[in-house]
Amino acid sequence: MRWLAGLVQACHLLPSLAVTAFGTAYGALAVDLPLPTLLVLAAALLVGQLSIGWSNDWVDAPRDTTAGRPDKPIPAGLVPRGVVGVAALAAAATCVGVSLALGVVPGLVHLVAVASAWAYNARLKSTPASPVPYVVSFALLPAVASTAASPGQWPHVTVLVAGAALGVAAHFANTVGDGEADALTGVRGLPQRLGPRRSMSRWRSSSCSLQRHCRSGRSGPAWAARSCSSQAHCSRRPRRR
């Protein structure tokens, strides 16, 4: 039971559910996917997010232990690192099958988004290219739903831009407040190199850009505009990934 609690904490459940809910709502309200397709979409998004969350804590375990982070389940002794690693790999394998059940194109789009997040966890978070996986993964999120439609199509370019802006905003906001732990563990992504003040400036800039795209009316219906705007502000929280 203790391992189960540790696994729930390590998967970053609330953010995973938020991304799943947003992608599913987009599929329902903006793309009008039928219920069976929506259920597969929700399952694919959720298992993909679980794999990303678990891989994050699995890869970061040595750094988190060095930094003495009691908020992380592996250093806190709630769950062994190996168990989290197995869960991450099992979720990733499941994600492949469930994603491809949406169709080849939407399946590959989603797998690219998930692979991008894994690349961030494995290496890119400590490089100046750290925003790139956020740009890729967030921009592709609405494309998973739209390409799963019949016939499938890519979303308007402004939707992709809004997703990318949301990703950049989330990345810069999520690093604020983790400066000491990042310094101890050697995480030197772009926000850490710029510093907290300039990172917050980039967060505000990306949030404003996102809101402009949402308000333009070209990035989707009104509910999507409100969701994009609120997601940008909700991303300002302790680091998730």
Can you describe this structure?
The chain has a single domain (2-234), classed as Farnesyl Diphosphate Synthase. The protein has helices at 2-10, 13-30, 35-67, 81-100, 104-122, 131-147, 157-175, 179-185, 190-194, 196-215, 222-234. The protein is an all-alpha fold and 241 residues long. Helix 2 packs antiparallel against helix 3 and helix 10 runs antiparallel to helix 11. Helix content is 75%, strand content 0%. The chain starts with a helix and ends in a 7-residue tail after the last helix. The protein is globular and about 50 Å long. Mean pLDDT is 81; it is low at 217-240. The longest helix has 33 residues, at 35-67.
Rg of Cα set: 17 Å
- Terminal Cα span: 24 Å
CATH second-level architecture: Orthogonal Bundle
Order of helices and strands: HHHHHHHHHHH
The poorly predicted ranges are 217-240
What name does CATH use for the topology? Farnesyl Diphosphate Synthase
Regarding quaternary structure, what we see is single chain
The description of the largest β-sheet is: none
Q: What coarse outline follows from CA principal-axis ratios?
A: globular
How many structural domains are formed by the residues? 1
Helix content: over 70%
Q: What structural class results from the helix and strand content?
A: mainly alpha
Discrete helix count: 11
Beta-strand proportion:
under 5%
Number of strands: 0
- The residue-averaged pLDDT reads 81
Q: What is the CATH class?
A: Mainly Alpha
